[in-house]
């Protein structure tokens, strides 16, 4: 490979070197001085560059490569709570698992006892760890981290021996699983033993309390758990009910007696049937007398014997009624007094009997309360015993459901590539530092070795660039511009050098091509893609609709250099809308007319300015075509097959492109990439 292909900046340096040589005066002393200055600069740069580069590269490549192995496990800690058989209670017993439980298991994974077992297993397998404290070495190598929002733990091991790293992680997972099962078995066995002991202790307590209750009942004369069934209580309740009735009766008798003494209704003897009969007979006699008085005159009444007899009988009846009323009132009052006295005697007798029974009731109440307390205590102990039996049964039935689960999500494999260091990146950094320090050393040396000011400045001749491929172009052009830069303008050259140093079009870098395509869209990006595939502006505007097949990814170019080209996939989506059939222009304006090369140059200029490229005004269709040809030539394409991709360049241009081609045998078109990376990157 030539120096130009290895370093794109060499043509620029060569051109600048020739320009500087043209500026130097032709006297021998000046030439010698310039050579001495250049030699001094080269020696200073080479010395500093090598002094920094060689130790840096030795440090870089002598570092041992470190590998990293990774494994992932899912840890589901077993539930430490009981799970009842009934669904309702089971819902209450379930609880969400907290993040602290998983973090606890992460700490257990990197604990020293576990790492000591892993170190012993590695030593047995023939992969011992260096150093006396193998567990500490493993702790430095292995790290564990819980994946947020999941039950997954990621284990990483970093070291210089890939096989040892993978074996250490896999053995760590296996040993952790065995330890987890063993610890669970111990905890589960202890829990079952405790539950069984508690159930047996409560059953013995229930038996003792039941015997105590029975003994108390027997000692209390068969004390019934119901208060109403006791004879003393029943007697007191009956006496109390009788006392209430007797008190009410005494109150009624007392009220009646007071009413009789006050001359109320009862004092008139209204309840006496004899008095009532006599009053009825008197009323009948009075009615007969009034009937006769309505019939006869008073004189006749005084003379009539029957009338006299009736009046006499009526007067006698009234006297008898009055006497009977007095007798009846006295009898009623005496009866009321007798009733009141009897009611009061009954009340006093009942109160005396209740007082005599109060001691027996109090004694019964005390014994009943004590019996009730013993029965309640027995009921609580029996309930606790039943719960203990149920808990023991659930523990025995749910051991497997509470077993902690460890699922291996991803096993640790032997890493094939080093994790660090990045030798290439660090080497480039060392190279950059050495190069920068070399340039800094040159600047520092030249700061104290400034040449004297020249007495007179040499004449300067500015060479105007000529069109690429014109008659002034020569096959031996050495001032070819590097990608992304304009070709240098020769100064101080003789007129005869003009034809040999006419500069070619500018070559864009891949980054500039990406920016140019990104700044365009639609039809503009489609046109740029055509030019970057090696088409001239005239060939692009001459394309028809039938010349492009986006589905198949090919483009047919007509004219003097007919060829069939591969197109990137993204050009099918940017195909411009057209009017007409397959013979209609592929690139046309809104009216359906064929675009002109000036229209293409306008689209290209807009994209260049929008992309912010340097010297955007100098970018035209020839620049894009030249960039495509340079890309093909730099890959080592045979010049005989160049015409099948971009047309036939002129002999002068071929001489220039020959300086870009690498040394050695050239490659056929089937072994190179016809599309530059920038074109393919747009579809990624």
Can you walk through the features of this model?
This protein has 684 residues and is mainly alpha-helical. Among the domains are: 227-382; 499-681, hpI Integrase, Chain A. It has 21 helices and seven strands. The chain has helices at 3-6, 10-23, 28-62, 87-93, 99-109, 112-124, 134-141, 162-219, 231-261, 273-295, 298-303, 305-397, 423-447, 510-518, 523-532, 537-541, 597-611, 621-634, 643-646, 651-658, 677-681; strands at residues 67-76, 142-146, 152-159, 405-410, 548-549, 554-557, 563-566. Helix 6 packs across helix 7 (134-141) and helix 9 packs antiparallel against helix 12. The longest helix has 93 residues, at 305-397. The chain starts with a helix and ends with a helix. The relative contact order is 0.10. Mean pLDDT is 75; it is low at 1-28, 80-96, 454-482 and 484-501.
What attributes characterize this protein structure?
single chain, 684 residues, mainly alpha, hpI Integrase, Chain A, four-stranded antiparallel beta sheet, three-stranded antiparallel beta sheet, 21 helices, 6% strand, elongated, disordered N terminus, Tyr recombinase domain-containing protein, coiled coil, Integrase_catalytic
Radius of gyration: 64 Å
Count of DSSP-assigned helices: 21
Strand order of the largest sheet: 2-3-1-4
Biggest sheet descriptor? 4 strands, antiparallel
If you average the pLDDT, what whole number results? 75
Topology, number of strands? 7
Q: Give start-end ranges of low-pLDDT stretches.
A: 1-28, 80-96, 454-482, 484-501
The secondary-structure class comes to mainly alpha
Q: Based on Cα principal axes, name the global outline.
A: elongated
CATH homologous superfamily placement of the domain at 499-681 = Intergrase catalytic core
Strand content: 5-15%
Helix content: 55-70%
Secondary-structure element string: HHHEHHHHEEHHHHHEHHHHEEEHHHHH
Distance between the termini: 31 Å
CATH-defined fold name of the domain at 499-681: hpI Integrase, Chain A
CATH architecture of the domain at 499-681: Orthogonal Bundle
CATH C-level name of the domain at 499-681: Mainly Alpha
């Amino acid at each position: 490979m030539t120096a130009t292909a290895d370093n794109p900046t060499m043509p620029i340096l060569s051109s600048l070197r020739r320009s500087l040589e043209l500026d130097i005066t032709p006297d021998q002393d000046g030439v010698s001085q310039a050579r001495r200055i250049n030699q001094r600069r080269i020696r200073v740069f080479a010395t500093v560059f090598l002094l920094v580069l060689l130790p840096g590269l030795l440090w870089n490549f002598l570092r041992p490569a470190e590998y990293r192995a990774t494994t992932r496990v899912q840890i589901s800690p077993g539930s430490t709570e009981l799970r009842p058989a009934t669904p309702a209670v089971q819902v209450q017993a379930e609880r969400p698992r907290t993040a602290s439980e998983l973090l606890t298991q992460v700490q257990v994974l990197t604990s020293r006892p576990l790492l000591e077992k892993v170190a012993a297993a590695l030593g047995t397998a023939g992969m011992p760890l260096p150093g006396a404290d193998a567990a500490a070495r493993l702790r430095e190598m292995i790290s564990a981290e819980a994946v947020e929002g999941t039950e997954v733990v990621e284990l990483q091991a970093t070291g210089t021996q890939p096989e040892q790293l993978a074996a250490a992680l896999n053995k760590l997972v296996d040993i952790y699983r065995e330890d987890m099962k063993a610890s669970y078995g111990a905890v589960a066995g202890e829990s079952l033993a405790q539950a069984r002991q508690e159930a047996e202790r409560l059953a013995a307590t229930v038996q003792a309390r039941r015997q105590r209750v029975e003994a108390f009942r027997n000692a209390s004369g068969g004390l019934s758990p119901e208060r109403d069934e006791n004879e003393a209580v029943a007697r007191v309740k009956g006496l109390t009910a009788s006392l209430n009735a007797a008190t009410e009766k005494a109150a009624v008798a007392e009220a009646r007696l007071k009413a009789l003494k006050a001359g109320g209704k009862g004092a008139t003897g209204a309840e006496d049937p004899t008095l009532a009969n006599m009053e009825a007979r008197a009323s009948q006699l009075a009615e007969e007398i009034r009937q006769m008085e309505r019939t006869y005159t008073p004189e006749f009444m005084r003379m009539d014997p029957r009338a006299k007899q009736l009046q006499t009988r009526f007067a006698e009846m009234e006297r008898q009624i009055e006497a009977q009323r007095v007798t009846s009132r006295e009898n009623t009052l005496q009866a009321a007094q007798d009733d009141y006295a009897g009611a009061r005697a009954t009340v006093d007798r009942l109160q005396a009997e209740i007082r005599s029974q109060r001691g027996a009731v109090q004694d019964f109440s005390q014994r009943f309360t004590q019996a009730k307390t013993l029965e309640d205590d027995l009921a609580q102990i029996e309930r606790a015993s039943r719960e203990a039996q149920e808990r023991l049964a659930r523990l025995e039935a749910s051991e497997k459901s509470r077993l902690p689960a460890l699922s291996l999500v991803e096993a640790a494999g032997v890493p094939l590539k080093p994790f660090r260091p990045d030798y290439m990146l660090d080497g480039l950094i060392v190279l950059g530092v050495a190069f920068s320090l070399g340039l800094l050393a040159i600047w520092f040396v030249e700061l104290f070795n400034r040449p004297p000011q020249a007495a007179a400045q040499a004449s300067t001749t500015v060479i105007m660039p000529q069109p690429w491929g014109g008659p002034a172009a020569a096959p031996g052009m050495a001032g070819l511009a590097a990608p992304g830069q304009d070709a240098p303008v020769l100064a101080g050259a003789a007129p005869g050098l003009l034809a040999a140093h006419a500069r070619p079009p500018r070559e864009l870098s891949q980054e500039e091509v990406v920016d140019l395509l990104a700044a365009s869209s639609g039809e503009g990006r489609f046109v740029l893609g055509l030019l970057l595939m090696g088409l001239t502006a005239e060939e692009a505007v001459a394309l028809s609709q039938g010349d492009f097949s986006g589905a198949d990814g090919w483009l047919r170019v007509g004219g003097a250099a007919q060829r069939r080209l591969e197109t990137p996939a993204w050009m099918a989506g940017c195909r411009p809308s057209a009017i007409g059939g397959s013979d209609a222009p592929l690139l046309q304006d809104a009216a359906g007319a064929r675009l002109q090369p000036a229209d293409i140059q306008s689209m290209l200029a807009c994209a260049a300015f929008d992309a912010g490229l340097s010297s955007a005004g100098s970018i035209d269709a020839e620049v894009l075509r030249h960039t495509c040809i340079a890309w093909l030539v730099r890959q080592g394409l045979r010049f005989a097959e160049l015409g099948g991709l971009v047309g036939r360049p002129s002999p002068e241009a071929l001489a220039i492109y020959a300086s870009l081609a690498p040394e050695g045998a050239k490659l056929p078109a089937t072994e190179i990439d016809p599309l530059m990376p920038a074109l393919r990157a747009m579809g990624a």
